[in-house]
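Hi R.,

Here's the chain you asked about this morning:
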Amino acid sequence: MHSEPLTSDSQNSVLDTASAIVRPQLSRALLWTMTVASAVAVANIYYNQPMLADMMRALNVSPKEIGLVATFTQVGYALGMPLFIPLGAFVNRRRLVVSLFFAVACALVFAAESRTLPALIAASFLIGLTTVISQILIPLASELASPEEQGKTIGTILSGILLGILLARTLSGVVAEHLGWRTMFWIAAGLAFIFGVLLRLQLPSFKPHSQTTYPALIRSIWDLARQTSKLRQVSFVAAMFFAAFTAFWTTLVFLLETPPYHFGSQAAGLFGIVGATGVFIAPIAGRLSDRRSPRFVVANAIVAVVAAFVVFWLFGFHLWGLVIGVVLLDGGVQAAQVANQSRVLSLHPQARNRVNTVYMISYFTGGSVGSLLGTWAWGRWGWHGVCGLGVLSMLIAAGAFLARGEEMVENGNPANEPA
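And here is the predicted structure, written out as tokens:
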């Protein structure tokens, strides 16, 4: 299972420079609420994937058309990060978090009541746009924790995010199978409303502490991307990984409904549990990045993901083939995510938040393109088209990864990782 990209906001304030504030005490109850709230928020991005076939039949549209639902969820998330995460430096963050939870609850109700494809696409875009809450809660928890507890606190919140990612597809697949896909959106809306209320009651008030203007901060993010070639290259490689990943997960439900499987949305959701093995790769990839280099990890991740799509291509009509492929795919994507973020965050230590914002926008843009092209390939060439797209995405990633420019001197400093 894929893990959402973990932002450097988990270790830094929304601003690139730390602000001295008086920390209210972080109680165990508040930490628990913030952890579960992060899981609830991130899950909204992934609910729709196992339900696409059910939505397709309900709205009487083609696989290519229903794929736009997953695509625009990713597009919304990519746009929501630069829109709302920096905004936390300029408004009361408790009010921002609560408002976003209520906004995503409304978007989820909109999705549940959508009777046409354009309405469902619009609702999905709004869900993605407003569900970036976990990326705001992480720095909030870091600020509330005492210095000696910050690492433990951040780890707890990140565990909640991983849990939300792992269980989202499984939960939505089971609910859609037995209660219908609209019910899943209603359940998600109820959860968003509940946690909006809980955080309104439990979160302390945070005063804005920005020393710059919002437009200036947005311009600085763009300037950083324009001026740092290695940031663009690593972000592009990561985007290709996520494109291959979303192409598979968006179309898996269509494969499982065809011979020889004849499975429903529940089976598609249960494959999320198989993908959970990828979570155990993260600490291994982190240690290898430290001992060998992030490039070593990314290179092996490319091999693993290519191998996954070869297995899908040759043995995807056998259940064991799908299981092996999912383990390779999720493990490879998880390892690449850890290593690629390590690479970009080492570029400008004084601007980690802005660097990671560029990275995440690229990452989820890649995911939206992967969802779009995946459903197009399925409609035109079936499962073989999806597998071919996955291999092609990784070949493009390998080409960008091996590009000579990646090791060029930037900003007067040579790249600090081994070739």
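One quick note: The longest helix spans residues 352-401.

Cheers,
M.
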